Amino acid sequence: xxxxxxxxxxxxxxxxxxxxxxxxxxxxxxxxxxxxxxxxxxxxxxxxxxxxxxxxxxxxxxxxxxxxxxxxxxxxxxxxxxxxxxxxxxxxxxxxxxxxxxxxxxxxxxxxxxxxxxxxxxxxxxxxxxxxxxxxxxxxxxxxxxxxxxxxxxxxxxxxxxxxxxxxxxxxxxxxxxxxxxxxxxxxxxxxxxxxxxxxxxxxxxxxxxxxxxxxxxxxxxxxxxxxxxxxxxxxxxxxxxxxxxxxxxxxxxxxxxxxxxxxxxxxxxxxxxxxxxxxxxxxxxxxxxxxxxxxxx
Length: 298
Prior knowledge:
- By secondary structure, the protein is an alpha/beta fold.
- The chain has one domain: 3-Layer(aba) Sandwich (Rossmann fold).
- It is built from 11 helices and 9 strands.
- The chain has a 7-stranded parallel beta sheet, sandwiched between helices. The protein has a two-stranded parallel ribbon with strand order 5-8.
- Helix 3 runs parallel beside helix 5 and helix 4 packs parallel to helix 6.
- The protein is globular, with a radius of gyration of 20 Å.
- The protein starts with 17 loop residues before the first strand and ends with a helix.
- Belongs to the short-chain dehydrogenases/reductases (SDR) family.
- Keywords: Oxidoreductase.
- One of its GO terms (molecular function) is oxidoreductase activity.
- It comes from Hydrocarboniclastica marina.
């Protein structure tokens, strides 16, 4: 355990607790780890990127907490289950699981191969399911458990070219809301939070898979589309982590991260048909502008 485990210290909700985080090697996962470490929370970190994972662990250990690491592919159920059991053994308990690991893919429905469907869903959906089920018994045993599942702004609105990502993130939302109600019915000491980030400045866009079919939808090729998305990433991982952890403290059911997530959530709630027509109109205009630009350059 960490050196100072007095959880009664005012304002130290996380002090003396143990948090497991997937996708902890960078971005939101690393930011969550460091925020928690500053509040004296011990950590079990996992990522598929060993180098990024070890850097996150080093930074957290420098803050004086116990940190264990595991290179885990969240799409591998056996690996996730083994990590959960080892975490409970190493730390003596587990209070929180942050199912944060994820990947991105830009492609039309027709242009997406079944292999890419399976690749993304195995990580973004099954990874969340595996993480939740593997850690839930340990969270219940702790008497003060928290499941934090990262959905997305794209778990609230459908976007052309994001059908696979939408599929996963809408499913995470439904799965998480259902679990929350089950825990409420059981009067169980496990809180369940669904997180809907908007554009966060992480490397998920840079590492996203892009299919050439995206051009017919958004009017730009894969690299141009990547650059356009990059401009929409306004919220820093640090700010995102701060918002998420405030929601954990409040035992919220869901949290929107970023002004873009809040705006589009309102738009789809009050104008569920209009927002779709609006997106189609904007993308058609972009595609037409791109075609005119291409003709002018020839």
